[in-house]
Amino acid sequence: MKRLAVLVTALVTALALAVPAGGQEADRFREVDSSRTTPAGDTSRIMALNEVIEVFVQLDVPSVAEYVADQTEKGKKPSKRQQRAQAAAVDAQQADVLPQLEAFGIELLSSMRVGANGFRVEVNRQDLTAIAALAPVRSVAPVTRFEADNDGSVPWVGSEALWDMGYTGEGISIGIIDTGIDYYHEDFGGSGDPADYAGDDPTIIEAGTFPTLKVVGGYDFTGDNYDASGLVGPTTPVPDDDPLDCNGHGSHVAGTAAGVGTTEIGPGVAFQADLYALKVFGCDGSTNVTSDAIEWALDPNGDGSMDDHLDVINMSLGSPFGSLNDPTTIASDNASRNGVIVVASAGNESGNAAYVTGSPGVAPGAISVAASHDGAITFPAFRVEDGSSVAGLYQALEGSIGPALRDVGPITGEVAVAVDGSADPTFLCSPAVNDLTGKIALVQRGECSFGIKHDNAAAAGAVAIIVYNDAARGDALVSMGFAVSTIPGIFTGNTAGSAIAAAIGSGETVNAYLEDGLEVATPELTDTLVDFSSRGPGGGNTFKPDLSAPGVNIRSAAVGTGTGSAVLSGTSMAAPHVAGMAALLREKYPDMSVDAIKSLLMNSTTPAASYEPIARQGVGVANVEAASELGAYTTPAGVSFGRVNPIKNEEVTRSVDVTSFDGNKKYDVEVVINTAAPGISVSAPAQLNVKEGQTRSFDLQLKVDPKKLPGDDGFFSHAEADGWVVLTDRMGGETLSVGFMVAVDPASDIQLSPNMKTVANKGHNLGILDGFTLVGEGDLIGGTVGAVGYRSIFEGVAEFAVAQTAPWDSYSNRETDIYVDLGNDGALDFVLFTVDDSWWFGGDPSGYALVVYLDFRTGDLFPVYYAVADYNDHVQVLPLPDVFMIDDDTESTEVYYEVVTFGAPGIDGVQVGVMDTAAQTAGAYVELDGFSTENLRIPAGDWLWLLPNDPVGEQFEITGG
Fold this sequence. Notes:
This protein folds into 5 domains: 7-35 and 748-959, no CATH class; 52-142, Alpha-Beta Plaits, CATH 3.30.70; 153-375 and 529-617, CATH 3.40.50.200; 378-521, Glucose Oxidase, domain 1 (3-Layer(bba) Sandwich), CATH 3.50.30; 631-744, Immunoglobulin-like. The longest helix has 23 residues, at 80-102. The chain is α+β, with helices and mostly antiparallel strands. It is globular and about 80 Å long.
């Protein structure tokens, strides 16, 4: 047997759909029409199979947090001594296991014993399966690389009403796991002198500087130069005791949660809460040490007992397609089970792709926060002066790359469309070819970083830059940052930018006016969701995100300015609003459980002002005043029915508990549908009475009639039904809102006759029978690859079929690589790999995957087709042009192949083999309507049948032999 490929990609290829026996289904081969010659994404994703990667090895002895939570739920809360004893038990197991791991040549990076039991290590990815097989190992998962995802928004969420009641966050601790905090800023009780910040040595704590009365503790887990990606700094952290912010993100977040306020910035939501600066980023880039900070927050003094844990932690960071096996997700959930309210941003990957919402917010006990517009009803703007057809005010966000407009503005100048000499000249990713001296450069988003665009505009003489969004992302606005330039810049939507560009192109002279503080009223946006906010559900079809909060045009502390402010947008800005709300509720209800506080915030929400699926907005938009007025709550406050995939009528029941802590309740119960789906109905009892101090349950029942469900063509289709259960108290009038969602996936029921002469669909949904010549069964390492097939029955197209043994949520969160050695001469010729099409085209994840071709002989890299796959399935087809399977040198038809599959833990499946493309070309494709039968005429042999629309677990079959 040959050695496995030296190269393994983390890219993705496009695949064409197989064709029916009765006639070519050309539309199933979705070719990629692209003028792009290079991917928009990171080409460093092409990795070696022997690459060293960072993983978290979780062991089976319960961590301190798991132990305490389990015992507490049994009514036996452990003492400090017992907690320390459990910590010692974890230490003992780790001492036994570490030498076993060191035998694999691992490098130990850190260990956890409180939030989780395990090691963060660097390991050769080929050893993952062997390590996972060790007896004490519970799981092995990659350490996810995270990126950093008030005067109007803070009152809007109801904070002032709590302040009037005397709840200000006093005595409550909030950990800001982020880029640090500028504790010299006046918003955190600092001196307000920029010179103090500029003179600080960030590697040490100068006498009398830290901690402060406001930022009472913290730690720098990384040092300023660290970057987990290695793109802008070393990947090895250099921790120190001084968590001073050198980026600005963490200070902005902290100000929203608990800043004391300045003349320029309103107070944070819980302005008297204590802040802890847990710095997990360098000055730029990403991080892999978030779980270490959660560990610190659970046990600040490191003695093994959690009696000193923080009350709230905020993580305005994340990684898309959140995994329940990620160490930050595990630690976050364990923290929430032990009295820590965990708040995390949902992510900024737009609302288009299902399951893209990120870790660690997908932790069941965490509060995942989507972003909405608040009711301050103004938006930063720039003005196009009178004299052109496009005169007026346009929404915009000032970036933090160049000098601030408050320091160098206002700026007035003629707008010029900046162009470079490339095929896509308006992106300005190379030096400008037109003279921009004294002008404001107009540049389109995409292709390269904002910093490069700024630099090229400045080099051509521009005095400022306006970057406008691409058509795919429309009028969503982002904050440009993470670079340094000499000219100020603003970001505006595609509508404004395109109109200005068109006016200039028609010969008009367009002059713009840029000034800090210029605003435009936007009352129509109040309580609507933001385009960039990531969509759920969570992994495993869990209820995520949980709720929404203001995340656009948020003014808060600007790092290094002493007293100044910055306006930023993102779910990063939404999360600290909720962290502050949680702190106020913790102050009001010191003995209430984390689940109860989470439910108060969710039960009191109001639906987004315009239609949004529950998987985008959560239960609704949060308001802490409404939460504080409730006398009851439900658990859970967000119900997921999971994924329904029925052949026959099906019923799914979820139980909801209602607890009253203030007065007797007599509820009228109503089911309100938000997103309807034919064949789906949800019901609840009409009434429910709950006495004070009592908890009562009711059943929420989902009924599915498969004959009425919408059809499913098996190509990246995802449907949901959702809504609310609204409980209205007839005695007091208060209402509790409970969100619910279900992923709807109609199923076929394909049955092959024993003699292989007929095939029948005994289900209601469209059935697909996709036949390939079987070329291999089984898996060398992980068991994920069940079978591999091949065929070449349609003109110009060859196809590989890969059947896996377990389903995925989103195919974009997986990868399949197929390495090919034409002629079986010992040298690999090319690889196909699958990847979300945003890697090639740019933008946010779409949920659609490409099949990409990489030729090892020539270096050619390009997408060939879209992959044929679906959400929540476990079979896939990767098409390619059939000429790529021909060995021009030897004309041999013998082909060596390697199939390598990747899941959240990295490589999880490998199959290798040799096939003959002259002999193994047979195939069949049949589409069957519900309750129909077709005749088959197929040659004898071993067959792999894909049944992509059948229920999970029944999606492939092997016949022959």
